[in-house]
Batch of 2 targets.
Target 1
Amino acid sequence: MRGYLMNAIRFHSYGDSSVLKYESVPIPEIGPGEVLIKVHAAGVNPVDWKIREGYLKSFLPYQLPLIPGWDVAGTIASVGALVTRFKASDQVFSRPEIARNGAYAEYIAVRTDEVAPAPHSITLEHAAGIPLAALTAWMALFETSDLRAGQTVLIHAASGGVGTFAVQLAKLAGARVIGTTSSRNIDLVKSLGADEVIDYRSQDFSARVKDVDLVFDTVGGDTQTKSFGVLRKGGVLVSIVSPPDASEAQQHGVIAKHAFVIPNGARLQEIAGLVEAGKLKVIIEKEFPLSEAKAAQDLNQTGRTRGKIILRVA
């Protein structure tokens, strides 16, 4: 599709959501081991606006302008010369490499090892809300932290995008699950499998919880600091927000870890299987058209959404 244009959201400088521009840009070219996905929908995640505001520019030195968005579901438009797993018209989803242009666009080029067949039991809009959040939850709980059946895990912001998947995955793995959320989301978190839910606005979780095996921190700040005290000796605090204080962890006799999700098409295929089996569901807060990416990011940035926000592209 060399020479053809597509609609996309880009930003040419770091800043607030006003830097997001809806414009025409060239359709990306693919390498021999890549596929071109015609985007049906893209998930909106905190990392999108954090990158837009420049928080990660020392870690990920982008060349601007940049197309954000690293959650995608759509159909294969074309495949590279070395690709045999996928063909044109296949429905797929992916958490693409975050160092490259993202999915707030009509097309995206993605390496095949980052792609998996989309679950057919749900819409592509819902499928777009799965990859980044579900892979993050899986990696933090089972690869970074090695959660096992019979253990107890405390999941902060259990009604959020990552939290809703973490509750379900931990419960499927046989763990006892405690979640924190606001009062309006208590029933939702219970419906996802949580054994106990704490309203963080009216209750102090650190006074109610003790001797847990794992704390999954998706909030940071004071919540992270107070979480060290609820762990058993030798327990683990894993954060996806900011690296935990190692000295603080040592004082409490616990282990501190930080998880940053990476693309994994094979893991995503396992997650798709759980969705197909009816064991895992995605919670959608709201959908926006691609042209309203600013409003979608503004809503995500409030930190008060239930599950995921989706951008409809096709």
Note: The two ends are 18 Å apart (CA to CA).
Target 2
Amino acid sequence: MKKYVAEFFGTLVLTLVVSASILSGAGLPTYLLAGIIVGLFVWTIGHVSGTHLNPAVTLALFTFKRIGKRDTVGYIVAQFAGAVGAMLLVSLLNFKLPQMATDYALFPLLAETLGMTIFAFGIASVALGGRHDHAAFTIGGSLAIGAMVAGSLGANGIVNPAVALGINSFGVAYLVGPILGALLGMWVYKKVSE
């Protein structure tokens, strides 16, 4: 049960940080704040749940046989519940996030796929390659770079379906793109590291 609570809480905080950044126009770019918070959670609760905090990551790790079916379902439920919890907290505090673009255009889908491929490549070095020495920096940095690339190429730069739901940016590009990118990034890592 602790690992599901860790996934719920981590995704809730990640979604709150992204929401706060969007609402406040914080001094640091949102993609950098997201990378920092994910790195923090890898450092603090990585030993509890693996710190997926992202349904695309969980599905990719299931595909590569690093997590079982039961935990896959439990993690994804916890992640989406955390994102919805953050959305409700933002709403209860009387803040309203803008409706972000969720169109079905090809370019946001490709941008989210590419951004997630970069992020997942970094994750794979830890989850598949056993490179735990600088896991928090590697994963947090990979997220920041992947989200920045996706945002620079015309998407919202979220690379996380749960967070996309929690910040009013849920659509095909923000669901399918991260899943494809997670699979691709981990596959590329396996191919180049074998």
Note: The chain has a mean pLDDT of 93.
